[in-house]
Inverse folding.
């Protein structure tokens, strides 16, 4: 079974943001969109046979009855199912069972190159028209329409919104033509090769060097060691139409392809489209056998008890010290049955116990910042157990020894039943959530899960069957069984390691090998399981208080409650989102309330505010108190507020509200999370210099906000100057000041939720005002300039980035205009993509985006950016200027406008099928009720416009003398006088 039982680490991430049926606000629009067209009806198949579904042959895993399986006479396999989330969408996946490991030495990069060329031109798509064709169908390029090439598969993906008989037929036609009859001409190759090389360049730098070193070291002797999907410049530039077609003909054949479809349509209808558009596809000759990927092998002189093989030390001055070693075993095809999955569950328990012990060791302070273990089957090439360590300080041997000592203890003695029970409770809630939320699982996620199952040669099971198998397997999870499985996880053919250091001389390959080979004494110091923590024993927030006012917002069924202490809450019970409750608590004054001299504490707050504890609970206590519960504690600093958020369940809502309220009223200030946050932030800082994108992540917001120090990334020196006392001073003030707004949207009982609010947020002390000084409230912008701000990076000499930014505005009154600006930026992006990527081939993914701070009167911007080679930076600036000037001088055509408004219409319609969309739109509405009215116009604001309106917006904001620009160049090209 794939997904939930693969490993514990992925259990909590099982669901994407799910979406429920479209609420009344947009339902009429959606119904009009979804009206089926009589033309282009598919060939409707008879009832789909399910007697012997191909995915489950040889397995005793219960078949998921929602999936309907079939095979065509030409060998193509398919699986289809009905799924109404989001309404009207159909997710199509075409999986080719071939990736970069299927290439010869001379073909390296061909699988990925083909992925690009199939979008270039094919039987039903003239050259260069694919993006526009799918946009006309409402699909956004890059998100709704995409493809992925890995080492073992190539997957073409399309999420078709507003699927009708006509649009489904057209989509299957276009996608079938791409896969079965691509053109693959010399002109196609000439157009796509620069784009692929640009993508290769943008993925280069320090991170790529580490990735390459890891592949070559850990997987030495396997194809995986030198078969990255991006390929090599030598092999790609030597490609010819004939050589590319030879790879295509070898692997793109119906008996090597699966079509997976999940969406809001009758499965028989979906099967009909597969048959109509793929039945005529044929292949010549026998299907070739997959290459032998190789097996990990120990060196001849290795110690049989601890076979340490290749080790390597890599010097990367701008990356944090990072050590990874792997215990490798040959990958073997397994029978995906219940017994196998019970073994995976036991493996997951063993890993979870070790990881919790390692985290406890790191939290206590010592030789390493973080460490973890993780088993994975890598690219059908190796069964590996990875150990990752981030040392603190220069004594890496102590860090490695301490981590290995914790693992050695797990291999020496069985865990306690209490430890096992704690991890069982965590796993069980992760299995329960998909059952509770099965009705709101998105079709795109369900389709992707099946694709991933095919890739790892496993099956899928319905959530209720996964939960049942887990619950029936609990008697197997004994201390002795977990010990046995843990020992197997750390027994292998060979152990290999890579250690990334910042300066030469810190370590050598041989020293690393000896450190891994030397015995360690088991460390049992983090074995103990403290007593459970109960919410019932926590201190009360205060005396419960009933709301003094309850009123309808006039939007849908959303109500607003007001408490005597000033807290306001918005509630929207929605039965269509079973098992899911979204909670947000907005408070305080955000960035603008922090004194600029305290800017470094903003970063530390993001790392450590939650971990510093609340009431009687430290960080470990917070973990224990939520065992077996679905609770969260996300924290975000916004322009004019701070925000806690979480996704929880109806039965956990009251306690989730307590955690948020107690953090405001009963904060705790444990120093260790703050010290760990300082270390983590300081270690990360140097990594920003390794690439143009890293520099932009570090500095762009700082310049967009007019060099406001609160938006700067603090340097190690600034972090070092912070103290626990300063942290308490800054964040203690932030927690107790300013209004509080609570949002509860989703599946909950309103009366119970109100009672929980009365005991938590209603019981808070009256809030103090959040005074904002004139200096703190000032909104800075950079003056217009043709001379770019010049920043440098330490990465590859062929990497650069360019940014052009036009200031716009902010505030609630401008929300409709901000949505129209989104249309303008999409027009700009299409033109920039066509000019810089498709025609010039100097950048892989240029884009334009708009920001509009609703809580501030100004500070927004339109920003165009691209990663490219240094010599092309002036070309980008000139191209961006030319596009801006043309948008000012000439209105777009109606057809060009439709290419962006239709995808936006579908994005908004789909998003509005989730309560999360309305939560985001209504943030701050309890203090600014005008935001409620802007929700009613959201669809028209994003989709209804005219060419003249776009021209007027461009003239208002995109003037040549209105922008500033920034370039990030390699260090060798640094100009005199740069900062």
């Amino acid at each position: 079974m794939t997904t939930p039982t693969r490993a514990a680490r992925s259990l909590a991430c099982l669901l994407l943001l799910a979406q429920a049926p479209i609420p009344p606000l947009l339902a009429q629009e959606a119904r009009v969109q979804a009206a089926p067209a009589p033309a282009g009806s598919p060939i409707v198949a008879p009832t789909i046979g399910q007697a012997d579904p191909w995915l489950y042959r040889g397995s005793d895993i219960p078949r998921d009855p929602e999936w309907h399986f079939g095979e065509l006479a030409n060998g193509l396999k398919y699986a289809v199912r009905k799924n109404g989330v989001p309404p009207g969408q159909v997710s199509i996946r075409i999986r080719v069972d071939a990736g970069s490991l299927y290439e010869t030495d001379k073909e390296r990069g061909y699988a990925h190159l083909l992925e690009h060329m199939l979008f270039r031109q094919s039987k039903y798509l003239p050259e260069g028209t694919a993006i526009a064709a799918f946009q006309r169908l409402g699909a956004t390029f890059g998100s709704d329409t995409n493809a992925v090439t890995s080492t073992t598969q190539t997957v073409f993906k399309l999420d078709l919104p507003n699927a009708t008989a006509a649009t489904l037929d057209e989509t299957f036609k276009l996608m079938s033509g791409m896969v079965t009859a691509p053109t693959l001409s010399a002109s196609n190759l000439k157009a796509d090769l620069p784009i692929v090389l640009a993508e290769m360049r943008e993925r280069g730098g320090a991170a790529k060097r580490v990735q390459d070193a890891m592949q070559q070291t850990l997987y030495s002797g396997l194809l995986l060691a030198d078969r990255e999907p991006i390929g090599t410049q030598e092999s790609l530039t030597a490609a010819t139409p004939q050589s590319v077609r030879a790879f295509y003909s070898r692997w793109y054949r119906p008996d090597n392809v699966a079509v997976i479809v999940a969406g809001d349509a009758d499965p028989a209808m979906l099967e009909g489209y597969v048959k109509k558009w793929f039945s005529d596809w044929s292949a010549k000759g026998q299907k070739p056998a997959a290459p032998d990927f190789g097996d990990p092998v120990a060196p001849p002189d290795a110690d049989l008890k601890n076979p340490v093989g290749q080790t390597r030390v890599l010097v990367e001055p701008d990356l944090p010290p990072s050590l990874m070693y792997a215990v490798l075993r040959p990958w073997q095809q397994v029978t995906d049955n219940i017994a196998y999955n019970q073994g995976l569950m036991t493996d997951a328990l063993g890993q979870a116990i070790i990881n919790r012990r390692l985290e406890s060791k790191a939290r206590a302070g010592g030789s390493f910042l973080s460490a973890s273990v993780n088993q994975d089957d890598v690219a059908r090439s190796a069964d590996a157990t990875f150990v990752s360590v981030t040392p603190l300080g220069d004594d890496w041997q102590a860090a490695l020894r301490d981590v290995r000592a914790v693992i050695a203890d797990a291999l020496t003695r069985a865990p306690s039943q209490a430890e096992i029970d704690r991890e069982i409770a965590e796993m069980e809630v992760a299995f329960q959530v998909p059952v509770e939320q099965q009705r709101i699982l998105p079709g795109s996620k369900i389709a992707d899960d099946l694709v991933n199952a095919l890739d790892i040669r496993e099956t899928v099971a319905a959530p209720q069957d996964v939960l049942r198998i887990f619950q029936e397997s609990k008697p197997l999870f004994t201390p002795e069984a977990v010990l046995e499985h843990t020992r197997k996880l750390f027994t292998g053919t060979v152990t290999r390691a890579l250690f990334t250091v910042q300066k030469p001389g810190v370590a050598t390959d041989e020293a690393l090998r000896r450190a891994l080979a030397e015995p360690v004494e088991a460390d049992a110091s983090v074995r103990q399981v403290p007593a459970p923590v109960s919410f019932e024993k926590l201190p009360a927030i205060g005396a419960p208080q009933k709301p003094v006012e309850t009123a309808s917002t006039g939007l849908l069924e959303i109500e607003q409650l007001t408490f005597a202490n000033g807290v306001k809450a918005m509630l929207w019970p929605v039965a269509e989102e079973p098992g899911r409750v979204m909670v947000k608590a907005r408070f305080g004054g955000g960035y603008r309330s922090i004194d600029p001299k305290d800017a470094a504490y903003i970063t530390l707050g993001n790392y450590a505010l939650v971990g510093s504890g609340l009431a009687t609970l430290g960080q470990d206590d917070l973990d224990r108190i939520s065992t077996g519960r679905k609770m969260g504690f996300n924290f975000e600093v916004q322009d004019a507020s701070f925000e806690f958020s979480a996704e929880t369940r109806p039965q956990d809502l009251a306690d989730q509200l307590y955690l948020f309220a107690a953090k405001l009223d009963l904060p705790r200030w444990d120093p260790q999370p703050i010290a760990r946050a300082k270390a983590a932030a300081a270690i990360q800082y140097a990594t920003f210099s390794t690439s143009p994108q890293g520099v932009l992540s570090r500095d762009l917001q700082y310049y967009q906000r007019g060099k406001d120090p609160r938006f700067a990334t603090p340097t190690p020196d600034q972090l070092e100057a912070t103290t626990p006392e300063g942290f308490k001073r800054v964040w203690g003030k932030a927690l107790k000041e300013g209004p509080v707004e609570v949002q509860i949207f989703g599946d909950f009982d309103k009366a119970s939720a109100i009672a929980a609010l009365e005991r938590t947020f209603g019981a808070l002390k009256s809030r103090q005002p959040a005074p904002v000084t004139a200096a703190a409230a000032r909104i800075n912008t950079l003056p217009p300039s043709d001379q770019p701000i010049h920043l440098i990076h330490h990465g590859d000499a062929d990497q650069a980035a360019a940014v052009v930014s036009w200031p716009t505005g902010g505030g609630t009154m401008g929300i409709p205009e901000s949505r129209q600006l989104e249309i303008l930026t999409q027009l700009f992006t299409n033109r920039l993509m066509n000019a810089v990527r498709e025609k010039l081939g100097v950048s892989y993914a240029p884009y334009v985006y708009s920001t509009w701070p609703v809580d501030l009167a100004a500070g927004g911007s339109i920003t165009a950016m691209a990663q490219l080679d240094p010599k092309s930076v002036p070309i980008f600036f000139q191209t961006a200027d030319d596009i801006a000037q043309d948008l000012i001088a000439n209105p777009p055509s109606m057809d060009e406008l439709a290419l962006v408004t239709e995808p936006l219409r579908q994005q908004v319609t789909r998003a509005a099928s989730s309560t999360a969309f309305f939560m985001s739109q209504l943030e701050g509405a309890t203090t600014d009720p005008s935001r409620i009215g802007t929700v009613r116009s959201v669809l028209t604001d994003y989709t209804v416009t005219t060419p003249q309106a776009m021209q007027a917006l461009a003239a208002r904001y995109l003037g040549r003398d209105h922008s500033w620009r920034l370039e990030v160049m390699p260090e060798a090209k640094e100009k005199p006088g740069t900062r």
Q: What stands out?
A: Residues 3-49, 974-979 have pLDDT under 50 and may be disordered. The domain at 36-278 is CATH 3.30.830.10 (Cytochrome Bc1 Complex; Chain A, domain 1). The chain has four domains: 36-278, 308-438+449-517, 549-768, 781-973. Residues 338-363 form the longest helix (26 residues).
